[in-house]
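Task: encode each sequence below as structure tokens.

Item 1
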Amino acid sequence: MHETLAQLVNSAREQQVVATGTHPDGMEFLACPLDDAMLVGVGYSSNAAHWLRTRSVLRKRASNMARFGSWLPALLSDGSFKLTMRIPHDGKITREMLMAAEELLT
């Protein structure tokens, strides 16, 4: 999963476009270049997001802000649910960051 998201971030950065992808387990990724950073997202489409309990995600995030606080929950207009994070343009998403997002979503 980490490699998929890292490739999307690099592609979005190089081409200055929003890049999206899906892992075989159904998890979706997005990378969006901003003026001063890169927005990355990890989550599920509207079809798969129905099982996700957003209250549970919010409670889990609030219970350990040191680990989960940099991931911001977002319910998008298409019904998908993503955890989003801003990283510096030259920054990288680490395996630990992605593991924290996965843990929040489970």
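Item 2
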Amino acid sequence: MLRRYRLEPLNGLGEALEFAWDPETGELTGRDAIVVRRHAEQAAKRGLALGHPYPTAYDIVDPLRRPGELAVLLGNVFKLPADLRAAYPGGEDKAPAWGG
């Protein structure tokens, strides 16, 4: 199922990240799809990413098909919407304190 996002930057500076994503297929579309794809591919290649609570290392295998992994990647820079906060590894208690 396609999900549409507009994520505001944590620091309040710059443009929001806008994209649509289907976690079942890994498909990304929209204005910033290429940015999200590039970030996901780089993290998967490294195999891990730091997230909250800092400095917790999370395994990153397939962030375009695993909502929790995408939440870790995006939650470092953007305010997460409720569905991605709920998918954060360890639950919302581990997710960044700020939401979208």
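Check on item 2: Residues 3-87 form one domain. The chain is about 30% helix and 20% strand.
End of task.
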